[in-house]
Amino acid sequence: MLRPSKRGADCPKRWGGGLHLGEPKSDAGRRVLTLPPSVLTELKAHRRAQVAERLASEVWEPGPRGGWVFANPTGGPLDPRADARAFKLLCVKADVPARRLHDLRHSAATMMLENELDLRTAGAVLGHSQVSQTARYSHVLADRKAVAAERIEQALFGTRATALEK
Fold first, then answer.
1. In a domain, 95, yes or no
2. How many whole angstroms from its chain centre is CA 111?
3. Which of 15, 47, 49, 115 has its CA 20 to 30 Å from the CA of residue 159?
4. What is the DSSP letter of 95?
C-alpha cells in the first residue's frame, strides 16, 4: 500500500517527506481481486500501453514486483492525493456533488447489498477483516427493508398476500 509520509526523513518535526510503501492494515487487505471482464479488458489494454511507454522511455523506474499498475511518466508511483484531486475535478465536470474518493467504498458496499450480496462476501471484496466493518460502510435503503419484510412473510406463511397488497 502506498501512502504519503507524514514526516520528512531528515527532520522529525517537518511535514512532507514524500511517499512510502507500507503493509496493509490487516491480513484481509492482502487479497486476490476478482474483476468484471470489462475492467480486466481495460486493465490489459492499459498494461500494453504502459509496456510500450516503458520501452520508449530512457528513465523508467522499475517499481516493486514488476512495476506500478498506474505510474507517473517515469514509471514511479502516483501520489494518492493526486487521485483524490482528480476525482473531485471529475465530480465538478460531471456536475455532481464533489465527494471523497474513499466515499466510493460506501457506494460499492451499498450496491453489493442492494444486489443481494451477503455481508461476508462484500467484506471480502472490500478487504475487511470483520463483517462489522462492512456493516458500517453499507447504507441499507428503506425499500430493501420492505423487501426483507416481504421475504420473511413469504418464508413464514407461503404465498399469502402481504400487507402492501391488501
1. no
2. 13
3. 115
4. T
- What integer best gives the mean pLDDT of the chain? 81
User: In this structure, are residues 120 and 131 in contact, taking their beta carbons and an 8 Å threshold?
Assistant: yes
- What is the C-alpha to C-alpha distance for residues 128 and 31, in angstroms, rounded to an integer? 10
CA 145 to chain centroid, in Å, comes to 26
Q: Are 93 and 76 a contacting pair, CB within 8 Å?
A: no
Q: What angle do CA 120, 35, 60 make, to 5 degrees?
A: 125
Distance of alpha carbon 12 from alpha carbon 122, whole angstroms: 39
What pLDDT was estimated at residue 87?
93
Structural domain boundaries enclosing 126: 100-166
Sequence-separated (6 or more) residues with CB below 8 Å from residue 35: 43
Residue 26 pLDDT more than 60?
Answer: yes
Does residue 83 surpass a pLDDT of 90? no
C-alpha 65/C-alpha 116 separation (Å) is 36
Indicate if 106 and 163 belong to the same structural domain.
yes
The predicted model scores a pTM of: 0.63
- Rounded-to-integer distance, Cα 160 and Cα 166, Å: 11
Q: Which residue has the cell 474483476?
A: 35
Distance CA 19, CA 12 (A): 15
The count of structural domains within the chain is 2
